[in-house]
Write a structure and sequence with these properties.
With 300 residues, this protein is α/β, with parallel strands linked by helices. It has a single domain (3-299), classed as Arginase, Chain A (3-Layer(aba) Sandwich), CATH 3.40.800. It is 43% helix and 12% strand. It has helices spanning 24-34, 51-55, 60-67, 73-79, 85-108, 134-144, 162-167, 204-222, 248-265, 281-299; strands at 3-5, 43-44, 110-113, 151-155, 174-181, 194-198, 226-230, 269-272. The radius of gyration is 17 Å and the shape is globular. 49% of the residues are buried. It binds zinc ion. Zinc ion (ZN) binds at residues 157-159, 232, 234, 274-275.
């Protein structure tokens, strides 16, 4: 059965007027239940993980300053959220959703998180709404239990996975692949093991062609025992922040290709949702829901 991490704290409301769209974390599980893609039993509730899993990725000074809300004003501004205990608890619970998802992915082939993809979190600081890097934490967790040796991170969010690239820059056992908008944040990019930068206005055909020829080759070269997929839907033409121009159907074909490839090669995959900032919330929910619909279709 498809296991999906979800906790009520995911929809934690930010102060009025904050531009980060939190409502999708509430509406997406509702939509999946309503349309029958999922039943209640598909969802599991993550908890606060043991600090040791977080400390395998993040610097202790940073993590404890975060927990005690003691980080500097400048560091807090980089994160972009007004920090609160609840938001930090939320971030830790999201990381547990990914950690537990790793186990479910090994069991069932795939697992998802209705949040996560916090790929702008570096080992020593947070950026752009990301404080703790959930998939980096998941990767180290798998290795610590010897559940995976070689890991591939496929980051198709429109923004580069700069934090993930930094965390694993000297680690040959974790391969970081990021395909993103060249003119999108972060403006000073890190170096992933493979970066593909796409020009403004890139449409379905070029995007998909590039992915279709890259991913199978990459999997062959890296030969991973586990894949993390960051399925951000901010690649859509309608996205407020993204500079690419995919259609909903193109975005769905992207997800289908990634999941089918993992399925056919029998490599467990954990998916975190990542960004999506289209002005119409219906588009956000539909495009994210496609990833979950495909997971059900392909695997179960
Ligand atoms: Zn993004």
């Amino acid at each position: 059965m498809l296991k999906i991490a979800y906790h009520p704290i995911y929809k934690h409301p930010l102060p009025d007027g904050h531009r980060f769209p939190m409502e999708k974390y509430d509406l997406l599980p509702q939509q999946l239940l309503h349309e029958g893609t999922c039943i209640e039993a598909n969802f599991f509730e993550p908890e606060i993980p043991n600090d040791k899993h977080i400390l395998a990725v993040h610097d202790p000074e940073y993590f404890y300053d975060l927990l005690n809300i003691k980080i500097s004003q400048k560091a807090a501004r980089k994160i972009g959220f007004p920090l609160s205990e609840d938001l930090i608890e939320r971030e830790r619970i999201i990381a547990d959703g990914t950690i537990k998802g790793c186990g479910f992915a090994i069991e069932n082939g795939i697992a998802m998180n209705i949040a996560g993809g916090t790929h702008h979190a570096y080992s020593t600081h947070g950026e752009a709404f990301c404080m703790l890097n959930d998939q980096a934490i998941g990767a180290r967790y798998l290795q610590s239990l010897k559940l995976a040796e070689k890991i591939l991170i496929v980051d198709l969010d429109v923004h580069q996975g700069n934090g993930t690239a930094e965390i694993f820059k000297n680690d040959n056992s974790i391969f970081t692949f990021s395909m993103h908008g060249k003119s999108n944040y972060p403006f000073k990019k890190e170096v992933s093991d493979l970066d593909i930068e796409l020009e403004k206005g890139t449409e379905d055909s070029f995007y998909l062609e590039t992915l279709f020829k890259t991913l199978p080759k990459l999997i062959k070269e890296v030969n991973p025992n586990f894949i993390f997929y960051l399925s951000g839907i901010d690649v859509l033409a309608s996205d407020k922040l993204g500079t690419l121009a995919l259609t909903i159907d193109g975005c769905k074909k992207r997800d289908e290709f990634v999941l089918k490839t993992c399925h056919d090669l029998k490599i467990p995959v954990q998916c975190s949702m990542g960004g999506g900032y289209s002005p119409d919330i219906k588009i956000i929910i539909d495009a994210h829901a496609n990833t979950f619909r495909l997971a059900q279709e392909i695997y179960f």
